[in-house]
Amino acid sequence: MKHSSQSSISLTDLHVNFEEINAGLTNADAVDESNRCLYCYDAPCIQACPTGINIPSFIKKIASGNLKGSATAIMDANPVGASCARVCPTEELCEGACVLNHSTKPIMIGNLQRYATDWAIKNEQTLFEAGEKNGRKVGIVGSGPAGLSAARELARLGYEVTIYEAKAKAGGLNQHGIVSFRLPQKVAQWEVEQVEKLGVQIKTNVTVGRDIPVDDLFEHYDSVILAVGMSKVPMLQLGGEDLDGVYDAIEFVEGTKKGDLTTELIGKHVAVIGAGNTAIDAATCSVRLGAENVKILYRRTQKEMTAYEFEYEFAKQDSIEFRWLTAPIRLIDNGHGKVKGIECVKMELGEPGMDGRRRPVPVKGSEFILEADAVIKAIGQTRHLDLIDAFDLAHHRGVIKIDIDTFQTSNPKVYAVGDVIFGDGQGEAMVVSAAQHGKKAAYAIHQQLKKSISETA
Amino acid sequence: MADLRINLAGIESPNPFWLASAPPTNSGYQVQRAFEAGWGGAVWKTLGEPIINTTSRFAAVSFNGRKVAGFNNIELITDRPLEVNLKEIYDTKKRFPNHAIIASLMVEPSREKWHEIVKRVEAVGVDGLELNFGCPHGMAERGMGAASGQQPDLVEAQTMWAKEAAQTPVIVKLTPNITDITMTAIAAVNGGADAVSMINTINSLAGVDIDSWNTIPHVAGKGAHGGYCGPAVKPIALNMVAECARNSKINIPISGIGGISTWRDAVEFMLMGASGVQVCTAAMHHGFSIVEDMIDGLNNYLDDKGLLSVNDLVGKSVERYSDWGNLDLNYRIAAKINTDVCINCNKCHIACEDTAHQCIDMLTDANGKNYLQVREEDCVGCNLCSIVCPEEGAISMIELPRESMPMTWNERQHALAKLMG
After folding, report:
1. Could you report the predicted ipTM of this complex, rounded to two decimals?
2. Any idea what the CATH number is for the domain that residue B167 is in?
3. In 3-state terms, what secondary structure has residue A111?
């Protein structure tokens, strides 16, 4: 597998730096690896997949040369299965559960999944058909993994589905939020097109609550699904936050997926605040934008950081520096309204807080200044509170309350899936979990509505 | 979605995938599980006078670390009372009326015995009968199975006896442990068989334990030959199916058996003349669920080929199979090495140099880079280099422009004879 480490960063053609890192399996690799799969019965990898993909089956189909069947098996269980092949934390899911961990090494399930779905993309396959129209309509707010997944299943069940997407392109996190060198735009785009081919209408550049009143949705649709994900990075609440050169990590990563790449970071020093997966994304993107030095500042230690282990390893390979137990106090102006550094303070871990993690406490007198030409904030994401309030849904600090089996909210006509319900102990924010939410909400809606369908039929 | 239904000599099934008569079809419980998994039919484990089995029955041959390249067994026919099997067949057929249940039968070569068992089995509603003239071990020592299947006159007579009593189609299952399988296939035709199935297992000894010096498997330190099956036997089976399919005297359907593990194998057997296939080893290795990909893969293949029915495959390659004397001696291919793809393992060179026709040169270019090149004029087009090449696309066998008109050995001899006149 070939990796672009910092040493191979091109400063003359930044786009090269954002090409997909993992080259994918060759045909010979795929044949070898698929034949190595034991085809376990009641396989633990299936149990470990949030969408329950029949992994031994799709791998067997690669071995037999039935690539269409393989891609169909994957995408049937997971409408964003091509993206998940690339972004799932497989060592924590399917590959972590592979029985071969106990004898040799686990099957490269993610890479095989990619091999099969890449085949489908390359060969322009249409894998599913819309169900016969049942006369019912569902409106979905948000076209990310959860919204797309719900739309795909509802369309197959015969619903007329309309998705409202605030951005210019559909796909949500997969389209805008995951770094291109892990997930190229064309993969997310293909998944969107697969859903559109089922007759699902996606209205882009439409913000519900602003361009179209929430009441319109209640009026037009038999059910509404809220799949709006999360919003911007919250404010640090520090001085100097409005200086030039201070970025929101979500917007920063999104900027690298829009075509033109900024040359402003070439040779610069970048500080990223936070140590989650988004922070790593912002840091590795900075490296690929030509930054000379990239530091991640985190107020706790490596042990508490929320980034996946493989993301951490990846960042280290990119020569990103980690400054543990370091918190920003203020951002420093260069005198012309642009950031030139961060004043930080060293921290130490105190007593565990509400979430069980030890709380960081500033060490008195340990303040110091770090030079930085750019500061990227990656300390989490805010929630679309206005919209949740406009829908008048019960929530706890922006996490919508749902029935965990049906994904129904406090309004029986409204379902919520994906990042809008993650947090507060409700699941882990992974693309694959969002996809499963979408499926389950679709089936719950069908359960709810099919009675009335048969009554009117 | 192509139509996968087949009709083999009047036996209908929802798809061409049947379980062969073997351990997987030993009981109603198993056959019903198989039908639930998607198998189109099942040939029930051979019925006859219940026998006593040994323990330690199976052995398999691993090839370079991959399990079950070949499989060997010394298990005999059913060891359960006929009444029990018949009741379970009846129950299974009732639950799965659209699936094919074929009873495999083996009795002593006597007219009365055949009449009796055929009547009893048909009374419980089977869709067809398969006469087991192939089992190579144990039963053969008692004059049944392969012992009777190796004698064309006994094949013909027993087929006739079964046919005298049978109301349902009779398939004769042939042994490969014979010099020319078309001889016994013709005998089956002469006896009135509605179809033939092949191959049964091949006489085999799976191995010898080089530490204990026991046979594999052994029963209390002693071994006896078993029947070999699994992926390793596929080419042998495919040839036998093809030889029968192209023989004008064998004008009845063929049920193909022997190493079929995937939909691709099934396609090959059907192209070579099988109207349907039977599977055993692959199911024993992986469970009944393998049929899901067999059905799905076959369906996708047919869709890709634009074929509406699986029956459109049957026999399509038969006319391309002939005798050596009918092959064009003037057809020429030669190996071509793509140096951009080649990984320089030199396996093609040494294979050609040591064991073929010494026409692949190891060369060095102006930059000091090693490369391999075929001397086309010396290449006989044997394929060996492309067979040993580990890298896809590195060696292609390229058709060369014709230098002379097509001419087969037979035509050549005919022409020579004319000249000699």
Report:
1. 0.93
2. 3.20.20.70
3. helix
Which among B66, B264, B391 has CB closest to A64?
Answer: B264
CB distance B263–A64 less than 8 Å?
yes
Interchain contact, B297 vs A69, CB within 8 Å: yes
User: How near does any CA of chain A get to the CA of B289, in Å?
Assistant: 9
Contact A61 B286 (CB under 8 A): no
Rounded-to-integer distance, Cα A373 and Cα A392, Å: 43
* Neighboring chain B residues of A27 at a CB cutoff of 8 Å: 392
Concatenated DSSP letters of A242-292: TSBTEEEHHHHHHHTTSS----TTTT-EEEEE--SHHHHHHHHHHHHTT-S
> Read out DSSP for B127-146?
SEEEEE----SSGGGGT-TH
CA A238 to chain centre: 28
Distance of CA B391 to the CA centre of its chain: 29
Fold of A246-377: FAD/NAD(P)-binding domain (3.50.50)
Q: Rounded to whole angstroms, how far apart are CA atoms B149 and B128?
A: 19
pLDDT, tens digit, for every residue of B401-419?
Answer: 999 999 999 999 999 999 9
d(CA B188, CA B170): 10
Residues B313 and B329 in one domain: no
Q: How many domains does chain B have?
A: 2
For the record, the structure tokens of A3 come out as: 């990796």
Q: Taking CB atoms and an 8 Å limit, are A64 and B286 in contact across chains?
A: no
B interface mutation test: which of A31, A61, A62 has the most B CBs within 10 A?
A: A61
The CB-side HSE value for B38 (13 A sphere, CA atoms) comes to 15
Across the interface, of A26, A35, A66, the residue whose CB is closest to B296 is A66
CB of A377 within 8 A of CB of A286? no
* CATH class, range A137-231+383-456: alpha beta
Q: How does residue A45 score in pLDDT terms, banded at 50, 70 and 90? A: very high
Domain A22-122 CATH (choose: 3.40.50.1000, 3.40.50.2000, 3.30.360.10, 1.10.1060.10)? 1.10.1060.10
Q: Where are chain A's structural domains?
A: 22-122, 137-231+383-456, 246-377
Among residues A179, A191, A187, which one has the least CA distance to residue A143? A191
Pairs of CB atoms within 8 A across A/B? 41
Per residue in A361-376, pLDDT tens?
Answer: 999 999 999 999 999 9
pTM of the model: 0.93
